[in-house]
Amino acid sequence: MADAVVEQGPTVRAARARKSTSLRNALGRKSTVAFFLTLPLILLIALLVLYPAVYSVHLATLNKSMQKFVGFGNFLFLFKRDTFWMVVKQSCIFAVTAVFFKALIGFIVAHFVHNIPAKGQRKWRGMLLVPWVIPPAMSTLAWLWLFDPSYSAFNYTLSFFGIGPINWLGDNLWARFSVILVNIWYGAPFFMIMYLAALKSVPDQLYEAAAIDGANWWQKIWYVTLPMMRNIIAITALFSLIVTFANFDIVRILTSGGPLDQTHIFATWAFKVGIEGSDIPLGASVSLFMVPILAIAAIFILRDVSKRGNEA
Amino acid sequence: MADVALRKVVKRYDDVEAVRGIDLDIADHEFIVLVGPSGCGKSTTLRMIAGLEDISDGDIMIGGDIVNDVPPKDRDIAMVFQNYALYPHMTVAENMSFGLRLKHYPKAEIKARVTEAARLLDITDLIDRKPKQLSGGQRQRVAMGRAIVRNPKVFLFDEPLSNLDAKLRVQMRIEIKKVHQKVRTTTVYVTHDQVEAMTLADRVVVMNKGRIEQIGTPNELYHKPATRFVAGFIGSPAMNFIPCRLEDAGGTLQIRLTDRIAFALPPARAARYNALPRTDKLLLGIRPEHLTESHAHFGPGVETFETVLDVTEPMGMETLVYFGLDGTPICGRVDPNAGAKDGAPMRLAMDLNNMHLLNEATGVVL
């Protein structure tokens, strides 16, 4: 090959050599190899995530019959409707309250399970995961019957204490309470298992050092457990916030958004206006509203994760 | 500062007795080292003193008060762990001051104590760093600093140097000794490294299988071991144990090692061992430094014999020679210029003035 290059004169030879070395360098670079290795996944994500995302943005800019480009028309229309703002408010209340209590209950239960001797722990872990592994469409049906105003186990039990009957899914506040309660029941085991894993990764000697330093159980949680779990708490909360914000099945099965649209959240309302109301572009516009809200939440929650990741 | 006493302390895990009735008195200001092989109960004993393990039986006293049921935080002790156990999310200063902050000490006093401890340990420049940014040796200093600022009655060290490399371990050993000379706090130090035990301790407690084998100063343990275990554990390379028997030969007492080799005992040793039965069940304990190359100027009590060396290990200042006596592997220490070579014959000298005689069955030094 060297002979062939010699015949072509010095300029061409130099250019060729430069080109082949730079290509070889690029291929030899770890980052390039890494890029090519991950390319199939990147393409898959692009196909499954980017295409629908871009398509829904496109849809949101069309009129009801999807014939005409209306720009921000759908969004401007939504801004003028009280129901839309109610859905925004209810989605925030639903997601934030549910995630807070899921995290709290998950943390407390994880602590209890962590302190169970290793022998019996497996059994409890399995049992506590049951709500999370049953398909929510099915388990929510059971809750629907538990909430029945006339024949439900809840109202029957409460009647012994002279309370009720409560119109769980028909009353505005109780309906909101009920959908959040079921979401917490369904989602708390996920937090429990994540926190349990995080708790197991905290070295026992830190607790022993804290005990010798004079910390009581609460101070051990506050000064050792929580700081050691900050990253996992932040990431779990963000992940759950996204899933809870986009929840559909629980609200759809329990209340279908009622009474009077009071329990609608983004997904169920987008379904109502988009599919049931045959206005796909407006439905797409509603669901797109989740993006900026979740983006802001993600920035806030993940702000310190990478920095803290370097401490451990 | 305070004295510490253990009275018939027992620790049982289900059916296993990890610590089997330990009695130990540690004086105020004393530096005690618990040493022994893995699983001998030394760390469990330390953790019982700290209050991190409940005791199954017996009493532990700190400063004269029984503390069996006192939680660790109320025992006024400080502990340095093997893996340092520094809080990774706190800076060095926060780590060191954590205990004081929990006890609501005034800020000025906390600062003064942290500054003083940092100065003592030479970590003033690191005070604002997180543990992740420190080397192993620096982390160890911070862990010690955290103990020092508390000004506790007792320091407890649980194998604090095990995670450091050999060179740093020697450095930190000296640091620990210097710190103890300055603060004079009663210290209980656990290690499996007999060199650490010998160099640091006022008194060493040798433990084996949950019991105390012997308590004594480093020199006492080295020169007057009470049992075969102590004799073999203290000293490196370890003491040689050679099966032997006592014989009367022409009015003198002699010790027979093999059919070929028998040495007359020096008068002091002969008088000491004369009353012993003439059985086979004895072991001669002799340290490698008392098995040297032969030369003309030995005093009484030194006997020479001819052997063939198996292996030699030149160490620079000395050469270790390995050979066998009737199948018993033996190690000696000879001068590097004595001409010791692998597989070569050599005339060695055994200093019987420094011998030990042990009962083979009981392991007791006679």
TrEMBL record, chain A:
Residue ranges crossing the lipid bilayer per the database entry: 33-57, 93-114, 126-146, 173-197, 232-254, 280-302
Protein name: ABC transporter permease subunit
Principal cellular location given in the protein's record: membrane
Pfam families: BPD_transp_1
Topology of the protein relative to the lipid bilayer: Multi-pass membrane protein
Signal peptide (UniProt feature, chain positions): none
Sequence ranges assigned to domain ABC transmembrane type-1 in this UniProt record: 88-303
InterPro entries cross-referenced by the UniProt entry: MetI-like, MetI-like_sf
Similarity remark: Belongs to the binding-protein-dependent transport system permease family.
Species of the source: Bradyrhizobium cajani
Entry keywords, A to Z: Cell membrane, Membrane, Transmembrane, Transmembrane helix, Transport
Cited PROSITE patterns: ABC_TM1
Gene3D superfamilies: MetI-like
Subcellular location: Cell membrane
GO CC annotation: plasma membrane
Gene Ontology BP term (one): transmembrane transport
SUPFAM superfamilies: MetI-like (SSF161098)
From TrEMBL, chain B:
CDD domains: ABC_MalK_N
Function: Involved in beta-(1-->2)glucan export. Transmembrane domains (TMD) form a pore in the inner membrane and the ATP-binding domain (NBD) is responsible for energy generation.
Name of the featured protein: sn-glycerol-3-phosphate ABC transporter ATP-binding protein UgpC
GO cellular component terms, A-Z: ATP-binding cassette (ABC) transporter complex, substrate-binding subunit-containing
Membrane topology: Peripheral membrane protein
Gene: ugpC
Source domain of life: Bacteria
GO molecular function, one term: ATP binding
UniProt cross-references to Pfam families, sorted A to Z: ABC_tran, OB_MalK
